From TrEMBL, chain A:
PROSITE patterns: COX1, COX1_CUB. CDD domains: Ubiquinol_Oxidase_I. GO terms for biological process: aerobic respiration; electron transport coupled proton transport; respiratory electron transport chain. Keywords: Cell membrane, Copper, Electron transport, Heme, Hydrogen ion transport, Ion transport, Iron, Membrane, Metal-binding, Oxidoreductase, Respiratory chain, Translocase, Transmembrane, Transmembrane helix, Transport. This is Quinol oxidase subunit 1. Its cofactor is Cu cation; ferriheme a. Its EC number is 1.10.3.-. Belongs to the heme-copper respiratory oxidase family. Catalyzes quinol oxidation with the concomitant reduction of oxygen to water. Its main location: membrane. Pathway: Energy metabolism; oxidative phosphorylation. It comes from Sporolactobacillus putidus. GO terms for cellular component: plasma membrane; respiratory chain complex. It catalyses: 4 Fe(II)-[cytochrome c] + O2 + 8 H(+)(in) = 4 Fe(III)-[cytochrome c] + 2 H2O + 4 H(+)(out); 2 a quinol + O2 = 2 a quinone + 2 H2O.
Automatic annotation (TrEMBL), chain B:
The chain crosses the membrane at residues 41-67, 88-107. It catalyses: 2 a quinol + O2 = 2 a quinone + 2 H2O. Coiled coil: none annotated. The keyword Ribosomal protein does not apply. PANTHER family: CYTOCHROME BO(3) UBIQUINOL OXIDASE SUBUNIT 2, CYTOCHROME C OXIDASE, SUBUNIT II. SUPFAM superfamilies: Cupredoxins (SSF49503), Cytochrome c oxidase subunit II-like, transmembrane region (SSF81464). Residues 277-313 are annotated as: Disordered. This is Quinol oxidase subunit 2. InterPro entries: CcO_II, CcO_II-like_C, Cupredoxin, CuRO_UO_II, Cyt_c_oxidase_su2_TM_dom, Cyt_c_oxidase_su2_TM_sf, Cyt_o_ubiquinol_oxidase_su2, QoxA. CDD domains: CuRO_UO_II (cd04212). The gene is qoxA.
Length: 654, 313
């Protein structure tokens, strides 16, 4: 009996009222979901329409729902940190909790918010933009999602079972090793992130092939929409960068679980090697979450300036240059690790070089606006705010690139301010921009503009209140990851202002959530499929797009293909309506979900080093693969008369 | 709405102006108290000027296009304005020039920081030379300072002569930390698998706050120390005072210090010779249990880049 209570008190995280609160809310939410689904008899609907779906649009929506939930959790983490730091010597969180909270905040925001949100948007938009019926590997696409989902669930479970990781999202060795960091927390990080990372790698391959092989006839590479270009380049970065991370995570897992010495202090292990492997992935990762939003901003700015993008070819080559440079700058994350002057000089200059293509892009966006007819919609506001705010992040990035100056900025709040300036003004503004922009395409109605603008202004202004003062705080000597600070250093008032800004951002997010709820009930229907006077093919089909996307695959002859089609229509040159033909579509499959579930079980087992659970979990994964390889009937045809019926219902037949 | 955008632009410039003009003594990095920090400060100010220029250009164009083309029925709408070779070449060349203007001083400073700063005061008699060497070891969560020339050990504070270059040799016993005294100069990591060096020098006597800037666990936030710079005569009398009045550091006491904990500043008049091996946690534990203390792999020099240039010689 004593043993059992002892085990349980270590298994479940105990002793903190906030954790019990979280336990209770998780339990209540789970019960609530089960009750609602059962009461409305929605289990079958959930399984048939969503959990087994291989439709890129549904997978995209599921990615975005999951990412929004994770954004909520990561945001609560941030507010907890800011509450703790609001005043000197606060006792809201102790060091142990604070360390866990900043670790989960960083990991969740990058891996379980930024990436899946972008994957969600690209799932929705890319096949539609290139005139395809789905991605190249729809089954793999579903598997990617479920691996991400179960990886994220496993990571989040650490909060209530076993204890959260506390080595920082960068998990530097030797601190993250078993010797200095015993317990299961770090295992959750390693295995949860690993599982979702496999999904990310598969997504990279999937979209590379999709974009290269499935474009509509006539759409050459240099006629693709800019967002599709950004995803093509991002996919290449994913494919080259993620294996380094997969290997690093695996090596540290082996260190921790089986006592190897890759990154340990003892037996010739090299903690520095972890830093290199981590950032060899970590720096390209920054561009994995930035290039796609560059694509989104390009689409949105062109649409609402009512102009073709300025300097299209240069924009593409800038992104290619950035993707190349992103692989030769990783060392700037540790200029202070005793590198020789020539090494630091090389990485200083390679990092500065990134400013050149990025600067070129900024000017091209500005000149797209120039001589435009600018329309200030909510997505456009996010895109416009990106330009000055991201530029501040960019120029401070150049300052950090100068190694001798970095010796003074490194690991300080100056750095914290810089990367939030780029990741929020870039990635977060970008995903909010894309969310508002493509929302009608996803759901068939628009988000409310008034609430949208309110959430924008509140969030954007608060963002500046939150992060501008941090630059000063860094120069005053406050370092990141401090759970508290003494009075008398002059840090107090600045920290208090920062905390106000952080809660303001929370308010902005709540207004956005309200907007989603309000618009779901009262939102303006999008009957045309083209609510923004769009320029690219996704706006040429109905909103929401039918399962098969396009009744007829469009033929492309120029950039901004849909704008050209509308032009032709205005000039009265319409093509005769072709008869519908049956459309070949992939079948739904429950295997990705089940396989993700087995991965979760295996991961949970390995986290606790329960091999009796981990190994059968992995065998389950293999069994799923075998089962899949015996599925011969993996596609179906939508008959022509059903297509006609769907098109007629959407009002697309005259 | 236009107005708000304009206001935002102006608001963004204010902090930069404050930074350039109002260097209060609370902003440690902008208040350099030694040649190393000053060198870095000059680079920071130079980059701030260049970057403010870039930001100003972007903001001016941004506000111009929004005001001019954000109006309803503006006259200048031209959907065929989709490229301009000349302009594009200009905004390719301008960033290249800016990068060069920043890269040249960056590289120059990198190499300059290799060498010890010039001494600006007469060395104390107890130093026996014109430069001082101090071994720094980070241990969870405290700083140990060993003065090989004086055979003294201090914990969580360090005493240096003002105006004399000090070569801090950096080691870690367990987790990775970073040694940072913002008023005297930029930081450097302390690591178990490579020892490194950092030249610092204080212009005048005074107390300069230092802390670990790389997260290392529970006691990290309190991992602070003071650097006390003293005049030559004060330094000499401090050394002789320590020699006379402070206890010796025994191996037993040292083993206690190695336990993860935050401790108060301490002073010892001597230390065991053993400490000069700079053993890390694995080596120390191997020694305790009688196992091999060899931490290196055959054929590899795991002890760092001693003497081979780098940020520090």
């Amino acid at each position: 009996m004593q043993n059992i209570t002892n085990f349980l008190s270590h298994f479940f995280v105990t002793g903190d009222p906030m954790i019990y609160g979280a336990d209770a809310s998780i339990a209540l939410a789970s019960i609530g979901i089960v009750v609602v689904l059962t009461y409305f008899k929605k289990w079958k609907w959930l399984w048939d329409e969503w959990l087994t779906s291989v439709d890129h649009k549904r997978i995209g929506i599921m990615y975005i729902i999951a990412a929004l939930l994770m954004l909520f959790r990561g945001g609560v983490d941030a507010l907890m940190m800011r509450t703790q730091l609001a005043l000197p010597n606060m006792h809201f969180l102790n060091a142990e909790h604070y360390n866990q909270v900043f670790t989960t905040h960083g990991t969740i925001m990058i891996i379980f918010v930024a990436m899946p949100f972008i994957f969600g948007l690209m799932n929705i938009a890319v096949p539609l933009q290139i005139g395809a019926r789905d991605v190249a590997f729809p089954f793999l696409n579903a598997l990617s999602f479920w691996l991400f989902f179960f990886g994220a669930m496993l990571f989040n479970l650490s909060f209530v079972i076993g204890g959260s990781p506390d080595a920082g999202w960068s998990s530097y060795a030797p601190f993250a090793g078993a010797e200095l960091n015993p317990g299961v927390g770090q295992n959750y990080y390693l295995i949860g992130v690993q599982i979702s990372g496999i999904g990310s790698l598969a997504t990279g391959i999937n979209f590379l092939v999709t974009i290269l092989k499935m474009r509509a006839p006539g759409m050459t590479l240099f006629k693709m929409p800019m967002f599709t270009w950004s995803i093509l380049i991002t996919s290449v970065i994913v494919i080259f960068a993620f294996p380094a991370f997969t290997v690093a995570l695996a090596l540290m897992t082996i260190d921790r679980l089986f006592g190897a010495h890759f990154f340990t202090i003892a037996a010739g292990g090299s903690p520095m090697l972890w830093a290199n492997l981590f950032w060899f992935w970590g720096h390209p990762e920054v561009y994995i979450v930035l290039l796609p939003v560059f694509g989104i901003f390009s689409e949105v700015i062109a649409t609402f300036a009512h102009k073709t993008l300025f300097g299209y070819v240069v924009m593409v080559w800038s992104m290619i240059a950035i993707s190349f440079l992103s692989f030769i700058t990783w060392l700037h994350h540790f200029f202070t690790m005793g590198n020789t002057a020539p090494v630091n000089a090389f990485f200083s200059i390679s990092t500065m070089l990134i400013a050149i293509p990025t600067g070129v892009k900024i000017f091209n966006w500005l000149f797209t606006l120039n001589r435009g007819r600018i329309e200030f919609t909510t997505p456009m506001l996010w895109a416009l705010a990106f330009i000055p705010n991201f530029t501040i992040g960019g120029v401070t990035g150049v300052m950090l690139a100068m190694a001798p100056a970095d010796y003074q900025y490194h690991n300080s709040y100056f750095l914290v301010a810089h990367f939030h300036s780029t990741l929020i003004a870039g990635t977060v503004f970008g995903i909010f921009c894309g969310l508002h922009y493509w929302w009608p395409k996803m759901f068939g109605y628009l988000l409310n503009e008034k609430l949208g603008k309110w959430s924008f202004w509140v969030f954007m202004i608060s963002f500046n209140i939150c992060f501008m003062p941090m630059y000063f705080l860094g120069l005053m000597g406050m370092t990141r990851r401090m759970y508290t600070y003494p009075a008398g250093l002059g840090w107090g008032p600045i920290n208090f202002i920062i905390t106000i800004g952080a809660f303001g951002m929370g308010l902005g997010f709540i207004i956005m959530a309200l907007n989603i709820v309000w618009s779901a009930i009262h939102g303006k229907k999008d009957t045309t499929g083209d609510p923004w006077d769009g320029r690219t093919l996704e706006w040429s089909t109905a909103s929401p797009a039918p399962e098969y996307n396009f009744a007829h695959i469009p033929t492309v002859s120029t950039r901004d293909a849909f704008e050209a089609m509308k032009e032709e229509k205005r000039e009265g040159r319409t093509k005769p309506q072709l008869p519908f033909k049956p459309i070949h579509m992939p079948n739904n499959s429950g295997i990705p979900f089940i396989m993700g579930g087995f991965m979760f079980v295996a991961g949970f087992g390995f986290v606790f080093e329960w091999f009796w659970m981990g190994i059968p979990g992995l065998l389950g994964v293999v069994a799923c693969m075998i089962a899949r390889s015996f599925v011969y009937n993996d596609h179906h045809h939508i008959p022509a008369d059903e297509i006609e019926r769907i098109e007629r219902a959407a009002g697309r037949l005259s | 709405m236009m107005k708000t955008f304009k206001m935002k632009g102006l608001a963004a410039l204010v902090p930069l102006l404050v930074l350039l003009t109002g260097c209060s003594d609370k902003i440690a990095v902008l208040n350099p108290q030694g040649p190393v920090a000053r060198e870095q400060y000059h680079l920071i100010v130079w980059s701030l000027i260049m970057m403010s220029l870039v930001l100003a250009i972007v903001l001016i164009i941004f506000i111009y296009v929004l005001v001019r083309f954000g109006r309803k029925n503006n006259k200048g709408y031209d959907p065929n304005n989709t490229g301009n070779r000349k302009l594009e070449i200009i905004w390719l060349i301008v960033p290249v020039v800016i990068c060069i203007l920043l890269a040249v001083p960056t590289v120059r400073t990198l190499y300059a920081l290799n060498d010890p700063p010039k001494a600006t005061a007469k060395a104390p008699a107890s130093l026996h030379s014109n430069a001082m060497t101090i071994d720094v070891t980070s241990v969870d969560w405290k700083w140990l300072f060993r003065y090989p020339g004086q055979n003294i050990e201090t914990v969580n504070y360090v005493v240096i002569p003002a105006g004399i270059p000090v070569n801090f040799r950096l080691h870690a016993y367990d987790a990775m930390n970073a040694f940072w005294v913002p008023e005297l100069g930029g930081q450097q990591y302390t690591m178990t698998d490579m020892s490194m060096h950092l030249w610092l020098q204080a212009d005048k006597p005074g107390t300069y706050a230092g802390r670990s800037s790389n997260y290392s666990g529970q006691g990290f936030a309190d991992m602070t120390f003071n650097v006390l710079a003293k005049s030559a005569s004060d330094f000499d009398s401090w050394v002789s005072d320590v020699k006379k009045n402070q206890p010796a550091l025994t191996m037993n006491k040292y083993m206690q210090l190695l336990k993860p904990d935050n401790v108060k500043p301490m002073t010892f008049s001597s230390y065991p010779k053993e400490l000069e091996k700079n053993l890390n946690k694995a080596q120390m534990e191997g020694k305790q249990t009688g196992k091999s203390t060899d931490n290196s792999m055959p054929g590899m020099n795991m002890s760092g880049n001693n003497g081979k240039g780098g940020y520090n010689p």
